[in-house]
Amino acid sequence: MHLDAQDFRSFYYRSALGRVAQRRIRDKLLTMWPENAKGETVVGYGFAVPLLRPFLSTARRVIGLMPAPQGVLRWPAGQPNVSVLCEEVMWPIDTGVVDRLVMLHGLETSGDATALLDEAYRVLGPGGRAVFIVPNRAGLWSRSDRTPFGYGRPYSTGQLEAQLKQHGFVIMRHAAALYQPPSHRRFWLRTGPMLEKVGHGVPSIVGGVLLVEASKQVREKPKSGLGEAVKRPLSVLEGLGAAKPTPSRRTGPDPDAAPTRHNRQGGQNGRLAMDVGQGAP
């Protein structure tokens, strides 16, 4: 189920809680990417444009993709538009040209998460990095429909990482954000920064959203063994070309050998000569 783009704008830009959520998630993203993607191509999908503003001045190109069922908004205000309306699983981006990808309000509301992750993998270049931001199924934000995080399918860290691995992504790290309750009351808004600091240091406190960073690692295709088989002779033929004749150590006839016809005839002639010599005067 996709929310309308107007609903996202009302939450993130016109409500105090939405501006707090935007700031908390963006700060966490910047801790994961402190270099600000200088000179790289950065793409956001879903409604990720609130998180892309820090990259406008440093990245080579910034693109905000918004799925057709959600609708599109012009962004950023007062600057050249970078928002693009697209099909959910057919992005107007060439294969392997994206260096950084941010997905917010895209995976949990998708009607075909498998095809969506395949498309995300396709556009990433070798070594490209992506951050997938989803509602935490154990957190408070996924249980309240007062925010966009209460819609769609929430995830646990293990579920999200397993799904990413099935599509070829390599998990790098994960984090959480939004430790304060999803309440518009001033008390929770004022104590939000303190709860955020405490939540990062106490494992038992569960954040409202999960951030999982993954990379695209392209494995080298194994080379065919035919080339090596042609270069190397068969093992059964090894050594045939290196054989050299060696002279025999025997210099005379073998005394144990059976007499041949030539030898027998020579012996008879010898005995005849001896007999004639003995009969001569």
Characterization of the model:
With 281 residues, the chain is α/β, with parallel strands linked by helices. The protein has a single domain, classed as Vaccinia Virus protein VP39 (Rossmann fold), CATH 3.40.50.150. The protein has helices at 5-14, 16-32, 49-52, 113-123, 157-166, 186-190, 192-201, 226-231, 261-279, and strands at residues 41-46, 61-67, 83-86, 98-104, 124-135, 169-177, 209-216. Helix 4 links the parallel strand 4 (98-104) and strand 5 (124-135). Helix 1 crosses helix 2 (16-32). It is globular and about 60 Å long. The termini are far apart.
Which features characterize this protein?
281 residues; alpha/beta; Rossmann fold; seven-stranded mixed β-sheet; 9 helices; 7 strands; disordered C terminus
Taken as a percent bin, the fraction of beta residues is 15-25%
The CATH class designation is: Alpha Beta
Q: Determine the CATH topology.
A: Rossmann fold
Structural class: alpha/beta
Helix content: 25-40%
Q: Which spans of ≥5 residues are poorly predicted at pLDDT below 50?
A: 270-281
Helix and strand element order:
HHEHEEEHEHEHHEHH
Based on the coordinates given, report the CATH architecture. 3-Layer(aba) Sandwich
Instruction: Please give the domain count.
Output: 1
First CA to last CA: what distance? Answer: 138 Å
> What's the total helix number?
9
Largest sheet, in brief, is: 7 strands, mixed
Radius of gyration: 40 Å
Gross morphology is: globular
**Counted beta strands:** 7
Average pLDDT works out at 84
